[in-house]
Amino acid sequence: MPIQPTQPARSSTRNATHQLTAVVLVAMLWHPAGASTEDPTTSMFSFSGFGTLGVVHSSEDDADFTSSRLKPNGAGYTRAWSPAVDSTAGAQVTANFTPQLSAVLQIIAEQNYDNTYIPHVEWANIKYQFTPEVSVRVGRIVLPVFLVSDSRMVGYANPWVRPPVEVYDFVPVSDSDGADASYRINVGDFVNTVMGTYGRNSSRAPEGGNVIGRREWVVSDTVEYGAVTIHLAYEETHLTIDSLNALFAAFRQYGAQGNALADRYDVDDKPFRFIGLGGMYDPGAWFVTGEWGATQFHSVVGDGTAWYVSGGYRLAKFTPYLSYAQVKADSNTFDPGLTVSALPPSLAAPAVGLNTELNSILGSIAVQKTISVGARWDFLKNVDLKLQYDRTRLGAGSPGTLINLQPDFRPGVGVNLFSIAIDFVL
C-alpha cells in the first residue's frame, strides 16, 4: 500500500481524479445481475484499516527532517518532537463482484504539502483477472518501483519505523493514474511476476507549484523462491516542476549563455529515469534485505545513487534490527553560471542573484550516510511498538535530505534522530 500526499495540481487532473473515484464507487455499489462471488454466503465487500502514531526528535534545530520531500516540515526546526513525519491513517474497501472482477478504494490521511491532514484517494482502481496468471487494472495504481512499494505506507508491514529515505525519497510520487497489466508464471518453486504500468501523476510541492509526470511507464519483475524475493524495476517519465519556470525564463533573457544554462538545468517535460534492484531473504527467525537505486535526470534536480542494507533477528515478540543507508550525487553540485564580468552593471547584479539561486538548488542535492538501530515489539495482536535511533552524517556542503534550512544551518554535520511509533492494522 503506497504512500503519497498527493493533491491534483490542475483542474483537469482534479476532475479526472474525482471522475475516477466516482467510477470505482459506482462499480462497488452496483452489483450486476448474475454477478456473485463463488460462495454466495460471503460478503462481496471487505474492509481494512491501518495506521501509525509516531513522533520524531532531531538534534538539528536549524533544519527539518521529513520522511518525504513533498512534506512541508518535520522534526528539528519546526518542532523538537514532530508527529507529522510518520503519523498516518488509512482505510480500504475491496469489492469482489465476480471471481474475475474486483475494485479497490483506499483513503489516506497524513501530512499534506500545505500542512493539512485532509484525506486523499491513494488507490481507486478496477481489476479484471483474465486468467489465474494475467490481470489488468485501470485507475489509480501504486507504482511498483520499490521492493515494498505496496506496503511502504503500512508501518506494521515493515520492520523499521519508515523505509530508508535515502532510497525511497528518489521517487516520492508513489502512484499513477492509468493502467497496468500483470503476468505471473510458476515454474516449479519459482514464482515470477512481470508488471507494466502506464499513466501520469500530479502533485503539489510544499514550496509552491506543481510536480507533474507525463507519459509515465514502469516495467518491473519480481521473483519469489521460498524465503527469497528479488525485485527489479525501471521507470521513465517526463517530469515538470513548474515552480522553477520563472528562474530559467530569467536565465534565457541573457542570450546564448543563458539559454544554454536553461536548456541544461530546466525541469520542463524533462525525461526522469529510475532503475532499482532489491532483495530480501526472510526464513522466519531472521531477515536480511537491501535495495539499490539510481536516477538519471539531466536537470537542476540532478542525478543520484543510493542503497541500503538491513537485517534483524526475531526473538519471540521482539525484533532488534540494524540498517545502513547511503545516497550520493552523480551530477554537478556547483556551476559558475552566467559570466558576470562581461555584463554591464545593470545586468550584472541580477545575474549574480540568478547564479546564487541556481547553485542553492544544485547544492541541495542529497549526500548522506545513515546508521540505524531499532527494535520492534509486537505487544498486542496486530499492534507493534517501534523505537529507532538514526545517526546521519551529511556530505560535505550538502544538507542531505533535510529541508527548511535556516541561516545558521551548517552542511556536512552529524544529525541524531530518535523515533517512536505505534503501528496497527484492522
Provide the descriptors you would attach to this structure in a database record:
single chain; 426 residues; mainly beta; Porin; 16-stranded antiparallel beta barrel; globular
Give a description of the structure:
A hairpin with a 4-residue loop joins strand 13 and strand 14. The strands form two sheets. A 16-stranded antiparallel β-barrel has the order 1-5-6-7-8-9-10-11-12-13-14-15-16-17-18-19. A two-stranded antiparallel ribbon has the order 2-3. It has five helices and 19 strands. The protein is mainly beta and 426 residues long. Helix 3 runs antiparallel to helix 4. The protein is 14% helix and 46% strand. It is globular, with a radius of gyration of 23 Å.
Overall structural domain count: 1
CATH architecture designation: Beta Barrel
Q: Stretches where pLDDT falls below 50 for ≥5 residues?
A: 1-13, 32-37
CATH class: Mainly Beta
- Average per-residue pLDDT, rounded, comes to 91
Strand arrangement across the biggest beta sheet = 1-5-6-7-8-9-10-11-12-13-14-15-16-17-18-19
Largest sheet, described in full?
Answer: 16 strands, antiparallel, barrel
Please state the CA-atom Rg, rounded to the nearest Å. 23 Å
Structural class: mainly beta
Helix content class? 10-25%
Q: Under CATH, the topology is which?
A: Porin
